[in-house]
Write a sequence for this structure.
């Protein structure tokens, strides 16, 4: 049986930049659960005046819409602003800090796993000699990739720690991805970005990347369409869709 290789559109990329949470690892579920606990506690303590805005944080739809792919502060501010007047910065920071505490606790207690389809894609890309970068807004990206056993599959990593050190703005600004491409010594136009977050897909489009792949792992209605509207060139539900069929003997 012939080994799988990157399909034609991905094979044309000279390098690939991947988001981590929700694309490579299942850590997005841990982030979403931590956000839900932190936001719901805030809404109970400071309920919005409008009863319609008091509903709990939805770990699927609200996570994708407001916080996925963003820095903690930006994500906290986006969701809180959607539920009423944006509270003072100290309150936003307190909610973000509580989310950080909860996430760190769960990460270190239970760890995370890499998606099997992601591992197959990464190994195929490495076998093809394609440079790979992990780019994440999370300050825990190093720990997450190590916990999932995939850190050695990437040539470079640009995470929340590096973003803070370099003063890079968060997604949907493309700065994080552009820095990853720079470290891979490849022009953005020759690079592919693989992202599941709307903000990340928009960042890939703004950055002028040659191919932006949206990953719609969630079954939430409209997710694929939202990724396309944000700028995804193609949307997949499983990363093996970016590989040729195992039995093919020639490139697709």
């Amino acid at each position: 049986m012939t080994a799988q290789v990157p399909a034609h559109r991905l094979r044309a990329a000279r390098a690939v930049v991947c988001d981590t949470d929700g694309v490579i690892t299942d850590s997005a579920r841990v982030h979403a659960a931590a956000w839900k606990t932190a936001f719901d506690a805030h809404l109970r303590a400071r309920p919005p005046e409008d009863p319609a805005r008091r509903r709990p944080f939805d770990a699927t739809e609200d996570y994708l819409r407001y916080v996925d792919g963003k820095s903690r502060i930006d994500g906290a501010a986006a969701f809180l602003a959607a539920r009423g007047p944006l509270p003072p910065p100290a309150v936003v920071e307190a909610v973000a800090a509580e989310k950080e505490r909860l996430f760190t606790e769960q990460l270190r207690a239970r760890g995370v796993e890499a998606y099997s389809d992601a591992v197959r894609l990464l190994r195929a890309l490495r076998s093809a000699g394609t440079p790979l970068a992990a780019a994440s807004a999370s300050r825990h990206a190093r720990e997450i990739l190590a916990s999932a056993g995939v850190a050695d599959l990437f040539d470079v990593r640009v995470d929340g720690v590096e973003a803070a050190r370099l003063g890079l703005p968060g997604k949907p600004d493309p700065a994080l991805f552009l820095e990853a491409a720079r470290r891979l010594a490849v022009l953005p136009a020759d690079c592919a970005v693989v992202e599941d977050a709307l903000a990340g897909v928009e960042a890939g489009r703004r950055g002028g990347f040659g191919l932006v792949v949206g990953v719609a792992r969630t079954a939430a209605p409209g997710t694929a369409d939202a990724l396309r509207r944000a700028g995804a060139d193609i949307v997949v539900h499983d990363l093996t869709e970016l590989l040729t069929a195992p039995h093919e003997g020639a490139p697709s």
About this structure: The first strand starts at residue 15 and ends at 18. The first helix runs from residue 8 to 11. Residues 44 and 54 are 8 Å apart (CA to CA).
